[in-house]
Write a structure and sequence with these properties.
480 residues, alpha+beta, five-stranded antiparallel β-sheet, four-stranded antiparallel β-sheet, binds D-malate, binds zinc ion
Amino acid sequence: LTAAAPDLRAQLRAIVGEAGLLAEGAAAVPYLTDHRRLYQGRALAVVLPASVTEVAAVLRLCAAARIAVVPHGGNTSYCGGATPDASGQQLVLALARLNRLRSIDAVNDCLIAEAGCTLAQIQAAAQSAGRFFPLSLGSQGSCQIGGNLATNAGGTSVLRYGMMRDLVLGLEVVLADGRVLEGLSGLRKDNTGYDVKSLFIGAEGTLGVITAASLKLFPEVRARATALVAVADVPAAVALLAHLKTASSERVSSFELMPRLALELTLRHIDGARDPFGHPHPWYVLCELTSARAADALDVILEEALGGALEHGQIEDALISTSERERQAFWRLRENIPAAQSRAGASLKHDISLPVSRLAEFLARAAPWIETAVPEGRLIAYGHVGDGNLHFNVSARSAGEDAALLGRAESVRRWVHDLVCEFGGSFSAEHGIGQLKVAELERYATPVELAVMRSIKAALDPHGIMNPGKVLRFGAAENP
Ligand code: MLT
Ligand code: ZN
């Protein structure tokens, strides 16, 4: 940390108390670097307000003194969205102490939670009321709902329930000047002017600080069937998705694709992982059907659908889990891919989405290009194929090739994102923009889109104090 002006620390302490202001030094370190260790920042101070009133007072103080504020949740961003810059002039505002579950209304299917609640905490609260909160991510034990909202998180059940934006009824937000926008509605129908809350979802803290949210709940899942399916290629996986949706009357809640190489990485780097099939297959799909009706025989539906597909040569093999333990083991093979990939060494990550109908064609163009243009890398394209979202990652072939691979990051990113654009896709499907993809947004958004975003930014944060350097360059930074 830089040495903060003593009166600033004193003023912050007066607002958040001793417990809400981190001492300078080691305690602050986790707030100054991101999950992937791409960025190392410094900060004026790290504050942890415990109420909305405290957040508002901190922002009033920062607005008056023109101090930049970096909202910080569970720090699981892949794009450096919650890490301060290296100037030492920004204040980190962590939401971890704002973590109360304010209310739950099982009849209205709605729950109000503060921003610092972890996703797992919200899932558990819903479950204890006999309801279900569907957002589901590998980092759910540590990511916070405020960060999920700020980045419009996706995950493994978007196919059925939508992204974070689709799961919100209302928000409470502290604006850049310290005013509180109170919008914790429990209404599903409310046509009263602009959809203001939507602006803050996916804005990554650049327009205000989300302090609480009113979230949609769903009937508890009472029946479930999960299968690991081996397929020859991506067209077969896409065809299987359509087949399962029809056969199950839209009860497919997850449909995840993994190439053989991803499974091999997991088998090599994750303790206890094992290949459930006797021999290798080129691609695998992990699919899950769910229903709120305990009596729904989803395993029968899945077995019939997969049996038919096997008979017609559409799939190579399939295993339906027969116990919760086996189901968890299938999911571990999928959820550990990012951990296995980072243990294996350097990788280039591209979080892309495409129309599902164009996925196979995209891969047919992109895979051979990686093969020849990136000799030190191997393509590991996996992910939420049911949503058209691929983590189009390239891993170094060996530790000795990390540096060479990383040296190509920019040219590979350009080629991949240009192709994604040609295919009508997005260069940021579910991981946001953060500081990593600011230039990408400038390149691929239209001038009109950028102008609209800058007008909104100017209206809500005229002095540019909210999470500067993230999502959008603004004000003086616009023309460096
Ligand atoms: C995932 O789906 O596993 C994550 O979004 C992480 C990744 O990009 O590797
Ligand atoms: Zn993902």
